[in-house]
């Protein structure tokens, strides 16, 4: 039988897990508003995340690489890429090193809009971490990474 301390600890864990889920939903809602404010209405929050990863990498990625970085299935990322390509945000091209692989890169349109994507990202970070010290952000980052590593299932 679990002790009161064990039950209290389990409750705190459950509350933290629920709060992380709530935060994720609120972040998506806020990103949607920020994208709308930057007139990036044809991009979903998840697609904007994919775009930011492509911008950060400064090199084209395969759908598999993008899926791994986003912790999503290749099928889901494939849908993002098709939608982004249809809207003119990305280009797909054959990988010269592997004829079976397709590389994804931001389009000229995307690079022109990069400052607006960056505005969305910065505005979200400013709101999310308002009042945090540098040390608190570093500590939170380590703790969240630790939780993520605990729950990641290696394929």
TrEMBL record:
InterPro entries: HTH_MarR-typ, MarR/SlyA-like, WH-like_DNA-bd_sf, WH_DNA-bd_sf. It comes from the Bacteria. GO terms for molecular function: DNA-binding transcription factor activity. SMART domains: HTH_MARR. One of its GO terms (biological process) is response to stress. Residues 13-149 form the HTH marR-type domain. It holds the Pfam family MarR. Signal peptide: none annotated. PANTHER family: HTH-TYPE TRANSCRIPTIONAL REPRESSOR YETL (PTHR33164:SF43), TRANSCRIPTIONAL REGULATOR, MARR FAMILY (PTHR33164). This is MarR family protein.
């Amino acid at each position: 039988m679990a002790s009161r301390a064990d039950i209290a600890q389990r409750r705190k864990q459950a509350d933290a897990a629920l709060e992380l889920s709530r935060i994720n939903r609120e972040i998506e809602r806020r990103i949607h508003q920020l994208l709308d404010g930057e007139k990036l209405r044809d991009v979903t929050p998840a697609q904007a995340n994919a775009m930011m990863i492509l911008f950060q990498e400064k090199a084209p990625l395969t759908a598999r690489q993008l899926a791994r970085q986003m912790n999503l299935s290749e099928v889901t990322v494939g849908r993002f890429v098709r939608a982004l390509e249809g809207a003119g945000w990305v280009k797909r091209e054959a990988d010269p090193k592997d004829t079976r692989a397709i590389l994804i890169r931001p389009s000229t349109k995307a690079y022109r809009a990069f400052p607006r994507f960056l505005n969305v990202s910065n505005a979200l970070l400013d709101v999310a971490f308002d009042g945090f010290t540098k040390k608190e952000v570093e500590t939170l980052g380590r703790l969240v990474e630790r939780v993520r590593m605990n729950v990641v299932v290696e394929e």
